[in-house]
Specification:
The structure holds 2 protein chains of 2 kinds.
Chain A: H1 3-46, H2 49-64, H3 67-77, H4 87-113, H5 116-124, H6 129-159, H7 171-182, H8 185-214, H9 219-225
Helix pairs in contact in A: 1-2, 1-4, 1-6, 1-7, 1-8, 2-4, 3-4, 4-6, 5-6, 6-8, 7-8
Chain B: E1 7-16, E2 19-29, E3 34-38, H1 45-52, E4 60-65, E5 68-69, H2 77-82, E6 84-87, H3 99-109, H4 115-128, H5 144-157, E7 162-166, H6 174-190, E8 193-197, H7 201-207, E9 210-215, E10 218-223, H8 225-230, H9 235-248
Parallel strand pairs in B: 3-8, 3-9, 6-7, 7-8
Antiparallel strand pairs in B: 1-2, 1-4, 4-5, 9-10
């Protein structure tokens, strides 16, 4: 057996472990991000002034500081005020809150792109504002936000690599470990790069399918006409 | 004793910033009446219409829908709006829903009907506007005229006591106007109470019971179509009708010369 095959045989189980964790981090971060982002966007667009300010503070805080700083504050800083999180807890929380800030902006753009006539028509048939937002505005806004959201999903696959700095055993951490163990960084990092590319390709494929499935028939014709 | 009016407006005022768009309008509309509101653009016709279902908040004055004073702060606006159908210039169909679902959503989410019942009712409303075959199509797949007919069906689905039309044909290509006017005429014949802001003089003359000529935020003239077309009290009415018929109408629709 040649050297490369032997090498790959040794590192593959480690890569699989790391990949699993990278995927897990991505999914949790995106979900937490959506759970934070949509309400933040709604607060910014429809909220009372104090809610709007609160949402803006959150969004600007997480968009205005480096992800790495956020991670360190959460993992090393929060224990000082009595909140100690596990490595995973800190990773999930930081990535999720960070993603939420960006997702909030994508959702906000989409909410604002829905013409005011939609809200007017919904109110005219007697819907409350809340019902109109829920049944008329949000379903359309989510479709509009999807392309930008796909971008976020793809970016998140790679952002997760930052958790290497607090030793969460993701793909990147495994790579660092293996390259040290076998004194062979080049093949290790190239393999890892390839795995990230495959993950991104899969994410792209899934998002494209979702976009296609949720497309409102005829809408693409409409946009061409204008 | 005669029935109370369906819509009653008393001394309505509305300002946008420093501009007063409506300067004291009073108006009564009886059941089954078809009232067409005409006038130059920017004279507050649409604003008045939107005040009737409180899409625009009046600054002053009172409005009643049957025996409910809708300008009373204790009135549930959402309940009132269920009784008032509104059709917009640019249709405002819910873009993510099929024609039939544009109608059912109000029935299920506002009136609380079950899905089956709502669907049957919605199909019946589509039948009324002649669009049963388009039930499964999305707004973007429909022509302008079809969209406006779905919008009418959506409003009708709520079983309104009065229908407001805000320039329903102004955004349509000329060849699509007819199908919408036909539906509106049918509604009028069926006895629907209607307030229509429009430039369609043919419709005004043939279908309406009353024409209201508005200018600069007040009602200049209010009377049966015959009076406004052939024997208007105000010269301004005659001038406007002459000009508008020349622009939008056909020769035989022109009012008598002056």
């Amino acid at each position: 057996m040649d050297e490369l095959t032997l090498f790959l045989q040794r590192v593959t189980p480690q890569f699989i472990e790391g990949t699993k964790i990278t995927i897990q981090l991505t999914l949790v971060a995106l979900s937490l991000g959506a759970v934070m982002g949509l309400p933040a966007a709604l607060a910014r667009v429809y909220g009372a002034p104090w809610l709007r300010r609160l949402a803006m503070t959150y969004i600007e805080l997480f968009r205005g500081t480096p992800l790495l700083v956020q991670l360190f504050v959460v993992y090393y800083g929060l224990p000082d005020v009595g909140i100690t999180l596990s490595r995973f807890g800190a990773a999930y929380l930081t990535l999720g809150l960070n993603s939420g800030a960006y997702q909030a902006e994508y959702f906000r753009g989409a909410l604002q792109a829905i013409g005011s006539g939609q809200m007017t028509a919904a109110r005219a048939i007697g819907m409350t504002k809340v019902k109109a937002i829920r049944h008329i505005i949000i379903p359309q806004a989510l479709r509009l936000a999807l392309p930008a959201w796909s971008n976020e999903a793809i970016a998140m696959v790679k952002y997760t690599a930052i958790v290497f700095l607090i030793a969460v055993p993701d793909l990147m951490t495994k790579a660092k470990l293996l390259s040290g163990r076998y004194f062979n960084p080049i093949p290790v990092y190239i393999s890892v790069a390839v795995i990230y590319i495959i993950l991104v390709a899969i994410a792209t494929f899934i998002m494209r399918n979702i976009e296609r499935r949720l497309e409102t028939p005829g809408l693409e014709i409409e946009t061409e006409r204008h | 004793m005669s029935k109370p009016p369906i819509v009653k407006i008393e001394n309505l005022h509305k300002k946008y910033g420093a501009t007063e768009v409506i300067k004291g309008i009073s108006l009564e509309v009886q059941e089954q009446e078809v009232v067409v509101i005409i006038g130059p653009s920017g004279t507050g016709k649409s604003t008045m219409l939107r005040c009737i279902n409180l899409l625009t908040e009046p600054d002053e004055g009172r409005i009643w829908l049957e025996d409910t004073e809708i300008t009373d702060p204790h009135t549930d606006v959402n309940k009132v709006r269920q009784r008032i159908g509104m059709v917009f210039q640019d249709f405002n169909l819910f873009n993510h829903l099929t024609a039939v679902d544009n109608i059912t959503i109000g029935l299920t989410k506002v009136l609380g009907m079950n899905k089956k019942e709502a669907h049957d009712k919605a199909m019946w409303e589509l039948e009324r506007v002649g669009l049963v075959n388009q039930a499964a199509q999305y707004p973007a797949q429909l022509s302008g005229g079809q969209k406006q007919r779905v919008a009418i069906a959506r409003a009708l689905g709520m079983d309104p006591h009065v229908m407001l039309f805000d320039e329903p044909t102004s955004a349509l290509d000329p060849e699509l106007i007819g199908e919408v006017l036909t539906v509106m005429q049918k509604l009028a014949v069926e006895g629907m109470t209607m307030l229509v802001v429009t430039h369609e003089m043919g419709f005004a003359r043939e279908v309406s019971d009353r024409i209201i000529f508005m200018e600069h935020g007040i009602i200049v003239e209010d009377g049966p179509p015959k009076q406004l077309f052939y024997n208007p009290v105000h010269n301004r009415t005659r001038e406007f009708l002459w000009k508008i018929t020349e622009l939008y109408g056909h020769d035989e629709e022109k009012p008598s010369e002056f």
